[in-house]
Amino acid sequence: MLPTVISDIFSRRLQTTATLHGHIGPVISIAFSPSGAFMASGGADGVKIWDLKTYKEINIPQQSYHERAQVSSVCWITRKNDSIAQTRQVRQLVTVPPTDERFQSRFEAVFSTRIARGGEILCVTADITGNDQTRIATCTRDKCVQVWLFNSANCQLVPVYSKAYKDNREIVPKSVAFDDNANRDLFVFGLYDGGLYKYSGKDATTLSKYQLGSQIGNAAVDLERRLCVIDNVGNGFDIYKVDTGSFVRTLSTGDPLKTHPKGVAFVDRSHAIVGGSDHGQVYVFDRKTGKVLRKLKHSRQGGAETIAVSLLTHIAVDRA
To answer: Which Pfam family is one of this chain's hits (predicted)?
Structure first.
């Protein structure tokens, strides 16, 4: 049973707020709700949702047997009420709370479907900035990227476009992010090939592609500053310009004892970057200088691999 730690990283003294117990096995994905009221975590035993006022687990209905699987990625979809998109290894599941204010801490499954070729869903992200319905993008280990419209009225996913990479190319999409332009173009980061690809939000045509490194374990995008930070699956994290692929700097966590994907995120309006490591430390870097501002010792053994950040300057971490 592995704990999830929530910390206030920009107080004068680094502080652990709570350790949450509940998962059996590793926690693979974490996401705060935009309101900061809830946190979702996914692992081999499914998804759990936590009330961050009480730090108690919220009971959610158990899915049927054929829908139970490892949850590799979670994200929240919020307009008026907190909603969550949850990805399992072989299907997409969207859960939303009822609109009645008396039941704002209640969540239930409302939609489930098999997507792509049935491979593990490595990442899911949502965009709610457009005038039409919310867009959701998913990427899978079987080399597929798909974009959907989420209809909040009937809780259905409507396909917009999909892209499948050829079998002879080592492009496995690991992370995706929407651009903030009118077309809502899509950035895709390749796991094994280290590429950054940008596709049109209209028809998925390739707009640009850049080689960022040999591999990309995870990625985060700052659209305001047109930057991205990637886990280089080695000595730390690298910052690049998303529009040109130009290298900016490396944020070093030291020579790795072993290599595996590490979580990374922009924080404090992108003045800082938070990233994990293979040796149990969580690093907080100054974005402009690369200097280490804080270190959080999360575990004595194993890596700090899963990281989420809220707008309230809290982070959640766990190790796989």
So the answer is: WD40
Give the closest residue to 31 by CA, choosing from 49, 8, 53.
Answer: 49
Query: What own/partner pairs with CB < 8 Å and gap ≥ 24 does 113-116 have?
Result: 113/157, 114/90, 115/91, 115/140, 115/144, 115/146, 116/140, 116/142, 116/144, 116/146, 116/162, 116/164
pLDDT for 156 equals: 82
Say if residues 273 and 287 touch (Cβ distance below 8 Å).
yes
pLDDT on residue 153: 76
Condensed to tens digits (0 to 9), the pLDDT of residues 106-126 reads 677 777 778 877 888 999 999
Report the half-sphere exposure of 101 (CA within 13 A, side-chain side): 1
Burial of 208 (0-12, 13-18, 19+ CB in 10 A): middle
The answer to whether the CB of 194 falls within 8 A of the CB of 216 is yes
As to burial, measured by CB atoms within 10 angstroms (0-12 exposed, 13-18 middle, 19+ buried), residue 118 is: middle
CATH 3.30.9.10 is the classification of domain 1-19+217-320: no
Distances (CA, A) of 109 to 42, 182, 254, 278, 313: 15, 31, 42, 35, 29
Report the C-alpha gap between 253 and 282 in whole angstroms: 9
Residues in the chain predicted with pLDDT less than 50, given as ranges, are: 1-6, 11-12, 89-103
Quick one: pLDDT at residue 318? 61
Nearest residue to 271 via CA among 247, 254, 294: 294
pTM of the model: 0.86
CATH assignment, 33-216: 2.130.10.10
DSSP helix/strand/coil, 258:
coil
Q: Which residue has the tokens 């692992």?
A: 43
- In the chain, CATH 2.130.10.10 sits at 1-19+217-320, 33-216
pLDDT at 316: 63
User: Which pLDDT value is given to residue 319?
Assistant: 53
